[in-house]
C-alpha cells in the first residue's frame, strides 16, 4: 500500500477527543474552525475521517449554516426503542 492511498486511521483517543469537543461545543463551529480549535492538533484528513464516522453513526449532523451539531441522545433513543407503538422499518 503506498502512502498516497493509505487512509488515516484515527486512534480511539483522537476519536474521543473530537467527539467530546463536538458535544461540548455543539453548534458553535464549522468543520474547519472546529479542527483549528481542537485541544490537540490532528491532521485534517484524520479529522475528516472522524467527522465522517460521527455523521454515519448519527452522533453529529451539519446544520444549514455548516456548523457541527451534536445530535446523539442515548436516553431519548432508549425511550423510543421501548415504545411498543413505534417500529423500525
TrEMBL record:
This is Uncharacterized protein. It comes from Methanofollis formosanus.
Amino acid at each position: 500500500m503506498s502512502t498516497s492511498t493509505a487512509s488515516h486511521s484515527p486512534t480511539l483517543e483522537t476519536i474521543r477527543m473530537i467527539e467530546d469537543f463536538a458535544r461540548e461545543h455543539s453548534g458553535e463551529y464549522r468543520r474547519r474552525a472546529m479542527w483549528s480549535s481542537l485541544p490537540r492538533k490532528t491532521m485534517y484528513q484524520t479529522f475528516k475521517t472522524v467527522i465522517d464516522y460521527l455523521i454515519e453513526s448519527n452522533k453529529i449532523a451539519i446544520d444549514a449554516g455548516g456548523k457541527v451539531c451534536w445530535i446523539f441522545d442515548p436516553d431519548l433513543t432508549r425511550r423510543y426503542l421501548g415504545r411498543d407503538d413505534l417500529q423500525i422499518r
